[in-house]
Amino acid sequence: MIQQWMSLLGLANRARKLISGEELVVKEVRSGKAKLVILACDASSNTEKKITDKCLYYQVPLKKVENRFLLGQAIGKDARVTVAVLDEGFARKLQTLLD
């Protein structure tokens, strides 16, 4: 099951419907463009709190994945702690896969 969300995330990335990096994710959540935020379980407690609080406040769904290496691998980059999905369709499908 793990592979499915990873390939979908990779697809979203290639479609340029994805943003990664803590600051950029927070910015997209604030602007209302983020439809889903994915956070690695091994994020620092500081980062985790910041992202979780922002998502709660702006009512953006938040999903967690095992670790930053898996998340980075899914989008063909180095370790990533958090990514935001900017497309409603991708976000909905990813949410069902990550439930």
TrEMBL record:
<dbReference type="InterPro" id="IPR004038">
    <property type="entry name" value="Ribosomal_eL8/eL30/eS12/Gad45"/>
</dbReference>
<dbReference type="GO" id="GO:0005840">
    <property type="term" value="C:ribosome"/>
</dbReference>
<keyword id="KW-0687">Ribonucleoprotein</keyword>
<keyword id="KW-0689">Ribosomal protein</keyword>
<dbReference type="InterPro" id="IPR029064">
    <property type="entry name" value="Ribosomal_eL30-like_sf"/>
</dbReference>
<feature type="domain" description="Ribosomal protein eL8/eL30/eS12/Gadd45">
    <location>
        <begin position="4"/>
        <end position="94"/>
    </location>
</feature>
<dbReference type="Pfam" id="PF01248">
    <property type="entry name" value="Ribosomal_L7Ae"/>
</dbReference>
<protein>
    <submittedName>
        <fullName>50S ribosomal protein L7</fullName>
    </submittedName>
</protein>
